[in-house]
Amino acid sequence: MPFVQVADVADDMKLVDDTKQKISKLAQPMSVFADKGSVLVTLQGSIGRVAITQYGAFVDRTVLIFDRYNQDIDKTFWAYIIKEKFIDEARKAPGGTIKTITKEALSDFDLMLPCFDEQKKLGAFLVSIDNLITLHQRKPLFFRYIFKTWEQRKWSDTVDISTEMVDPTSGEYDDMPHIAPGNIESFTGRVLDNVKSVKEEQLISGKFRFRPGDVVYGKINPQLGKYFYASVDGLTSADAYVFNGKNGITQTFLFSLLQTQDFFKYSVSVSKRSGMPKINRDELNAYSFLAPGEKEQEQIGNFLLDLDNLITLHRRVPMKR
């Protein structure tokens, strides 16, 4: 019989097809069995991995089974909300990693649950999002083939870095939002709900102006991945850049470029050269990347932007008891 350990819980919320270990009939009475369709979560090692079992299996003591619920629960929704809760707890933990978790600590987690019918709808919706993301993640395999038709481009030839700094005390920008890196969620491009107007912030020092369609990128601590695709007029911090593509580079593709592993690794590597991690204009202008034609750029950029918007829409669905 399969014996599930932490390493057998995959990142796609499933168990591996074949567990590394098997359990003998002699040892089975000393273990716990999880039926097909059970929700599991790992408590040690890679803490917080969640799976919905696609087959029955015995489980190790480092894996918790959710087998009884105090109210009607859709297991698909439950798996996603538990996974999201562990991600949220990791964000608050020192170093962004949960070192250990106990069943007792897990029981103290606060969770907001909608009614059962809403859970089913949201669970199905989240599965559809994951399927979209899986398609997106498989694109690099396709790109290996089509990269042959892509051209090497240099940042300095294809991206304008705005120098339009304005005076926020003039009164002209009072009603505009001030969106700084602290108002942006890392690695998602999502603007948080803590944005205030220029007047409310009582800003004094110069700020960069951005307009709908501009790409805004936080230059301090690039390892945090702070960027967004502007949909409104506003001001941003002097600790950010405002980008616009040129010479055949579209805005949506430029935004998707910031989200690539290649750009992330480059920005982090060059930022370590100073005491305060920061990527400057010269370092950006030295960056090179591969790009397809404009039509294909639009298809790629719009797909990723639509996906980001869909995920943001999901996250704004109210969770009521």
Using brief descriptors, characterize the structure shown.
single chain; 321 residues; alpha+beta; Adenine-n6-DNA-methyltransferase TaqI, Chain A, domain 2; 2 domains; four-stranded mixed beta sheet; four-stranded antiparallel beta sheet; 18 strands; 18% strand; disordered C terminus
Short account of what is shown:
This protein is α+β, with helices and mostly antiparallel strands and 321 residues long. The chain has 9 helices and 18 strands.
Structure write-up:
34% of the residues lie in helices and 18% in strands. By secondary structure, the protein is an alpha+beta fold. The protein has two domains: 2-119, DNA methylase specificity domains (Adenine-n6-DNA-methyltransferase TaqI, Chain A, domain 2); 150-315, Alpha-Beta Complex (Adenine-n6-DNA-methyltransferase TaqI, Chain A, domain 2). Strands 2-1-6-3 form a four-stranded mixed beta sheet, with no helix packed on it. Strands 9-17-14-15 form a four-stranded antiparallel beta sheet. A three-stranded antiparallel beta sheet has the order 5-4-7, covered by helices on one side. Strand 4 and strand 5 (50-52) form a beta hairpin. Helix 1 (75-92) crosses helix 3 and helix 6 packs across helix 9 (294-315).
